[in-house]
Amino acid sequence: MWTSPWARWGATLGFALGGFFDGILLHQILQWHHLLSLVPGIDDLRLQVLWDGYFHLLMYVVSLAGLFGLWRAQRRGGVDWGRPLAGAMLVGFGAWHAIDALLSHWLLGIHRIRIDSPNPLLWDLLWLAAFGIAPLVLGWRWLRRRGGGGSTGMRGSTAALVLLAAGTAGAGAWALVPPPGQDLATVVFRPDAGPREVFSALDAVDGRLVWSDRAMGVVVVAVPQARRWDLYRHGALLVSGSGALAGCFNWSRI
pLDDT at position 173, please? Predict the structure, then answer.
């Protein structure tokens, strides 16, 4: 089954969606850890948030590769749309969590699922079972039961690929969408930006400082939604779509 290009590229896309799932849920919504939260010497919240952004950028690249591969596979001979492709994506999704647990949690030790827990290994194992092993087993079963081929027709397959691309883009862009009526954004400024540069940038976009770390490298600002992206022109390296503080403050050294 893995000799079929569509299965490999479907797993690649599922792998990227697994990364988006972890990054959005654990780094931003639950705020349980950063990508490099246990790396010695990286105590600057600015760098922690910035590396989370680089991680999401990498997942964009992987997801684009998966979508491009599926498009090429469809043009060359068809894709088994429906349950077989979903199975391949589930395998990739589960593989992400298995690799993340083995490599990031236990071998490299750059983060754990819940750093503030008295028993982080328990959380690692629960997360691995729920989002690693279970999707791997289910996806593998769906792949082995594939039947009927992928002859959904050119129009149907194109529509399916467009919907898949839209869903992937939506998963990656979730962090950029501000809640309705919310004018707060979390901004990471370049390392050489001091308080003067930060306040100058806020003045340029009619913004107001709400919170900052000690070095003012990471700030939460109230800024009109139409002006927030202008901060990139004034020294910002990363502008989020929400004012959720880049979390885990109970263990961050700030």
Answer: 56
Between 151 and 13, the more confident residue is: 13
Joined together, the tokens standing for residue 245 give 């503080």
* Cα separation, 26 vs 247, whole angstroms: 10
- Is pLDDT of 251 > 50? no
* Helix runs in the chain, H state only: 5-22, 45-76, 83-99, 120-128, 134-144, 154-173, 195-204
Gyration radius from the chain CA atoms: 21
Q: How far apart are CA 97 and CA 15, in angstroms?
A: 9
pTM above threshold 0.85 = no
Give CA 194 to chain center in angstroms. 29
What are the residues whose beta carbons fall under 8 Å from the beta carbon of 54, sequence distance 6 or more?
none
Q: Which of 37, 14, 10, 23 is nearest to 112 (CA)?
A: 37
Q: Which residues of 44-54 are buried (b: 16+ CB within 10 A; e: fewer)?
A: bbbbbbbbbbe
Separation between Cα atoms, residue 168 and residue 174, nearest integer Å: 10
Q: What does the alpha-carbon distance between residue 72 and residue 85 come to, in Å, rounded to a whole number?
A: 15
Token output for 156 = 């149907």
Q: Note whether 151 and 84 are within 8 A (CB).
A: no
Of all helices (H) and strands (E), which one includes residue 218?
A: strand 218-222
